[in-house]
Amino acid sequence: MMMTTSLVTSGLEWRQSAAGSFSELPATRKDECAKQIYLPPELVFLGHAVDVILARIECESRQAAKRIRRLIDECGGNLSFSPARECQKLEIDLSLVSRQFKKLYRVTMRSYSRQIRMKAAEGLLRESNHLNIDEMARIFGYSFTSAFSRCFQRSFGKRPKRYQMQRGSSLQWRTLQRSVVKPQSSIEA
After folding, report:
1. Backbone dihedral region for residue 106 (phi beyond 0: left; psi -120 to 50: alpha; all else: beta)
2. Which of 23, 44, 47, 112 has the fewest CB neighbours in a 10 Å radius?
3. What is the pLDDT along the chain (189 residues), one digit of tens a residue?
4. What angle do CA 133, 119, 87 make, to 5 degrees?
5. How far apart are CA 38 and CA 165, in angstroms?
6. Does pTM top 0.85 for this prediction?
7. Domains of the chain (ranges plus CATH)?
8. Alpha-carbon span 68 to 99, nearest angstrom
């Protein structure tokens, strides 16, 4: 902070001294100089330094957003994964990473995590006909089955139990259909 203050004050002092010498120029020279804007080197350097720092922060937050997406994918969107904790580890501001995540993937971290979690839940329901919905909620980190059920319904339009029952009945129907329909024998006429 001290360095910034000294650069700014030296810039102000330069402007004041330049203004004094500016008035001493001949009239034609004044007009030419008035058209040109000159910034002292200290201020130009300070502006460039700020640009470099902001670009670096943006790059770091972009890398953190990509890392968080990869971690969400790896843990299947489980609620036990916390982007805030990951940002603390990386020593980067969560709000910067959130903005970068939304900019890169056009979805918030929370929504993306929920999408991944619900796709995994759907796959598990599809594979297992006998899995209890309470167990399923616990697997994905929900403390309350009702919260899991509500989230699942928002994603797929059906409660998980109903989805499971319909999937199970359609699987049983297909199995029954395959066993009832006998292969046609090739009879040559």
Report:
1. left
2. 23
3. 444 444 444 444 444 444 444 444 455 544 554 455 655 556 556 677 778 888 888 889 999 999 999 999 998 888 888 999 999 998 999 999 999 999 999 999 999 999 999 999 999 888 887 788 999 999 888 999 999 999 999 999 999 988 888 876 555 545 545 554 554 544 444
4. 105
5. 75
6. no
7. 114-169 (1.10.10)
8. 13
